[in-house]
Each structure stands twice: as C-alpha cells, then as structure tokens.
Amino acid sequence: MSDKVMVTTTVNGEEYEAMVEPRTLLVHMIRESLHLTGTHIGCDTTSCGACTVLLDGRPVKSCTILAVQANGRELMTVEGLEAADGLSPVQEGFKEEHGLHCGYCTPGMMMTVTALLEENPNPSEDEIRKAISGNLCRCTGYVNIIKAVHYAAKKKEGAAA
Amino acid sequence: MLPSTFDYVAPTTLDEAVQALAAGAGDAKIMAGGQSLLPMMKLRLASPGMIIDLNGIAGLDTLEESDGTLRIGALVRHADLENSDLVRDRYPIIHDAAQHVADPLIRNRGTFCGSLAHGDPAGDWATVATTLGAELHAVGPNGAVVHSAHDFQTSMFETQLGMDQILVEARIPAPKAGQGSAYLKIERKVGDYAAAAVGVMIVLDGTTITEASIGLTNVGPLTINATDAAASLVGKSIDDAAALEEAGRLAAEISEPSSDLRGPEEYKRDLVRVLTKRALRTAGLRAQGKEA
Lengths: 161, 292
What we know:
- The complex is a heterodimer of chains A (161) and B (292).
- Helices cover 35% and strands 16% of the residues of chain A.
- Chain A contains 5 helices and 5 strands.
- In chain A, strands 2-1-5-3-4 form a 5-stranded mixed β-sheet, sandwiched between helices.
- In chain A, helix 2 crosses helix 5.
- Chain B has 292 residues and is α+β, with helices and mostly antiparallel strands.
- In chain B, helix 7 (112-118) crosses helix 8 and helix 10 (241-254) crosses helix 11 (265-287).
- The termini of chain B are far apart.
C-alpha cells in the first residue's frame, strides 16, 4: 500500500487537513475524512454529476479527481451555499420552484447552477439546459430545475440592485 | 470504486516530470485532466504503479496564437477552448468540437493534449488535430520530439508517444486566407461518444477549393484521415454539389464502423457521407465570411 499523504485544502472558506492514500477520490475525502456528506456519490463512473463540487470555482465531478489533487486548492461543497442570512438564491429557487423530486441530484445540480450564475447572471433556458447537461436527474424533474434557476437569477439580480 | 494503489508524484517542473517518468520505467502514467485515465483506473482497466500529475507545473496552460501557430499546452482544458474568443473567431472546427466533448463538468477538467495521448479513435480532438495537421510536441529524456497528428495513433489506445515521453503542446497552423472549417458530431445524448463525427478544413480561392482535409471520428479502429475524399475536392468549386457528394461517398467508403448500441454499420457509414457534405458546406460558408 502506498503511504498516506497530507492534503490541505480550503473547503467552504475553512481550512481542512486530511491524511489520505493517493488513490483516494476527492468525493471520499469530502464525505469520509471531512464528514461533509452533502456531496453525493451517484454513478461513480463520471456520468451523473451527483458528486459535483466547485474546484477553484469550476464545477467538476469529485468522483473523477484524486483527493491529493485538491491540495492547496479551494473547494466549495453544497454545505457552503447557505450564508449567515439564510439560503442562497439557488437554494431558495430549488425550494420555491420545487426543483427536486427525490433530491439525490440536487447538491450537484445546485453547485453547477451556482457556478453558472457567477459566469452568466441571466442565462436563457437554452444556456441553462446546456450548463446542466452533465448533471442527470433520474426523476426527470428538469422543468422545475430550470424554473429554479430562473428564480435564483431574478433573486440575485434583485439583491444586487 | 477505487483505483489500485500507486505512488503519486506532483512535479513542479517539466524536467522533474520527465525524470519521474523515466524512473517509473514503463509503469508510470502522466495525468493531466484524468477524465479518461481515472475512470479506467477505477475499472482496473489500467493499474499504473505511479501517477505523475502535471497540474502543478506552471506554463503548461498556454493557449495563444503566435508566429503563425496556435499553441495548445498540456493543461488547456476543453472548456478553455470552448470559451476562447480566439478559438471561436479563428478556429471554428475547434469551437464546434469543444461544445460536444463529453459534458460541461468533464470539459472543466479534461484536456486537449490528454485526449490525444489517450489514443481513443472515439476522441473528438484526434480528428480535429489530424484535420488541421497539428504537430504534437513532446519531451523525453533525450529532449524534444515532434510527432505528426496524421499518424500519431498506432492502434486503439496506442500512439507514437514513447513510454518516456510527455506530450506538452499541440501546435496548429494558423488559418490561411480563405480557410474555413467545421466539425459535426451525431451523439445519442450529452456525454456519449459519437455515433459518427466529421471534421473538415478547406481553403478557397474565390469558390475554388485549393486545399482540403477531412477527419473521421469513431468509425474505425483509428481516427481516420480521409485523404482520398479530401483530394477529390481540390480544384472543384465549393458550390459543386456533385463534388461534395463524391467527397461524402469516398469518406463513407474509407470508414470502417462497427455495429453497436449507437447504430448499425450501414447507418454510421451513411452518417459519415451526410455529415461530410454538411460540414463542407458549413466550412465553405465560413471560408467566404458568411455566418454559419
């Protein structure tokens, strides 16, 4: 067995350290070493996007990155969305527009959408569909997810105004 | 699913990476985006004893045009190409393909050069590289080595890249006056490999085609450089429907698709014929500065 290595990473603004084997996947470190279980493991085959987290602001599949590759980098997980003053606009949108059925894809979906709205504050329906095309919802609740994104975009716009 | 155990090396210079690769003596693999390698390791289709991670090496994310060449460094992600104004304005075939490589999350991580080194005939970038006549610059213990994209793949998942070489940059000739290009892909759903895809590049003098090249994705054991189809176009008019039809026919003829879940062999072959014609028309409009 290869020796464990120390990984230091900033997650949701807080610095974490973990000793992991080099083969440890990022999603396992997040869930099992950092105990942040909001990030889900879905397909485990780079297909579904349930494990999406932001790595230096970009949404990526944490089942297809080694934990050691997050060393010295900045991560954001679903636990980082809520602010002191309540739900983030994206979280509120998913709640208000019922952007979830079973909820399994929701953490990953919200991370992708959060990154989308950072880059494109007022996306069209086509742009939303394209952005979430790597996140699968097996309940096929896409229509309400798209409504949730529109809601979040409006809410963010209102907050900025 | 976890990969087998391996030693992890994170060099900060290319020299260190080359030394580590030599020390790994055939049992080491280079990781850039890891979006093909890591899934293969999780399925235990690959079990390298050492992973050499390029992500800590500065300067490998170069994406720029200089001295008549587009330079794509080993850490340039698919999304970097997708979002580049330079690529959109000057290299439409790359912009086209970038929208359809895997899915948006994978595009944030996977790399152009990594896709080439992976040597998968289903890879979109190998077709783009061969269509544009890319030079693939590698380094090894004996210094720099340049491979041609045209004969880079040697068999499925095997390339000319030596076990002790690292692909550091793809160099693509800047477009000539009158050049147009396009990439068309049919996929069943986002994230799937192509049922078939076609890349074309042409150079026009007026409406006369003076240069052409055509690449085919996932319709054979290797990425296909459809040289006969391309040669048939030289001297013909881009408005000559029969010439485009003939190029499509020749491209379909040289393809060797196999029947699978993405469709029967005849269907894929006909996709090649139709996509070739359509891609040529799009490239023609672009070469003439018309929106397409």
